[in-house]
Amino acid sequence: MTDPIDSNRLRKTLALLQQATGGEELAALAAVRRILDTGGLSLSDLVPVNSIAGTRGDDRTSSRPPSSPFAFKEDFDDFMERKEPGYRARMAAEQAEIARQNAAFRQSVIAKYGSEAAALCPTPLEQAINDACKPLIRVRAGYPDDLDGCNPFLFGGLPARVVAVLKAAVPMPTTLQKAASEVAFWEERDHEIRSIMEGCPIEQRLSLACEARRQMVMDALQYDIRAVSVADAIFRVEFLLNSGTYPTEKELQPALDDLRALAAGEENRQAMVQNHSSATSSVSARRSEVIRLLSHPATATLADREIARQVGVSPQTVGNLRRKLATSG
User: Fold this and answer.
1) Are residues 43 and 141 in the same domain?
2) pLDDT digits (tens, 9 = 90+) for 93-102
3) What is the 3-state secondary structure (H, E, C) of 197-235?
């Protein structure tokens, strides 16, 4: 027996599909198919083939251009109304509530920054990242801008040069909690920009460089940063579960690796994560990491205790190095 389809999720995915381009369009189309599969439906059930071709007998459908099955929104609404009576009324009420919430959020963004123009100005973090990546931005007539040959809004990994520049521009978070905090910042910032630039293309939200940074931090949170406690491993899993999607086996694997390593004991754990651990291990490496954090404007203002916690040294060590840097500077 098939499950009923999530009509609300399907409607939102169709709306995303209408805005998407390139790889995003393929991803959205695949998501539509997955939603329909849960109800034992296919794309042909969503919109009849003769409607797509513009050959249905009634004037309303035959007069529309056969550009895409998803251009026929009225067909979809008719289909859902037959399947779920009252669907149109429910969707109209939901859309009205969404519009009200969006308007309220937009006003809160304007109040936060003082004006629409100010809300669109880069934050200090955005500016630092944009400035660092500016030499890598490639603009070509007739093509989307890219970042050293890569468009972070589409599929594909980031070039090594982009990764190196972004890491040098602003230190990467070294704990799962810090990474989650930065991911939340980027998602909120993206929401703010979209609320001001209503209806803008996806590429006009976060900048290319900032979207690349967001993806890097997300990858660090999901795969690279190692859990140092069971609480960390649970934190990673809870983050994945709260992301609004079903975690894949690949996404859950780091948490399983961490739990196995923690259960095996500290000595075995160090051996298991040595190849991909981002934590520093030697005394000299930890000292260099402290100096790097103290020397960078974005992290120099952190408390000694916080830097000590991130790197794995004592607050006294951080304080001593901070004083040495102050006297030598």
Assistant:
1) no
2) 988 998 899 8
3) CCCCCHHHCCCHHHHHHHHHHHHHHHHHCCCCCHHHHHH
d(CA 70, CA 29): 10
Q: 304 and 257, same structural domain?
A: no
Task: Let me know whether 135 and 255 are in one domain.
Answer: yes
One domain for residues 135 and 233: yes
Q: Which two tokens stand for residue 328?
A: 């030598």
pLDDT of residue 257: 86
Whole-angstrom Cα Rg for the chain: 25
Lookup: tokens for 261 = 């390593």
Give a yes or no: residue 241 inside a domain: yes
Residue 97 maps to a domain: no
Picking from 255, 273, 291, the residue at the C-terminal end of a domain is 273
pLDDT beyond 70 at 81: yes
CATH number at residue 304: 1.10.10
- In this predicted model, what pLDDT tens digit does every residue of 245-295 receive, in sequence order? 667 788 788 888 888 888 776 555 455 555 444 444 466 777 888 888 888
Together in a domain, 263 and 294: no
CB 112 within 8 A of CB 119: yes
Does one domain contain both 187 and 263?
yes
Handedness of CA 167, 168, 174, 178 (dihedral sign): negative
- The backbone torsions φ and ψ at residue 137, rounded to the nearest 5 degrees and listed phi first, read -75, 130
Maximum Cα–Cα distance for the chain, whole Å?
A: 85
Can you give the residue range of the structural domain that contains 256?
120-273
Which of 38, 60, 85 marks a domain boundary? 85
Tokens 């190095």 appear where? 321
Total domains in the fold of the chain:
3
**Residue 87's closest CA among 74, 95, 77?**
77
Q: What is the DSSP letter of 150?
A: B
Beta-carbon contacts of 272 under 8 Å, excluding residues fewer than 6 positions away, are 257, 260, 261, 264
Ramachandran class of 310: left when φ > 0, alpha when ψ lies in -120 to 50, beta otherwise: alpha
Confidence of residue 74 (pLDDT cuts 50, 70, 90): low
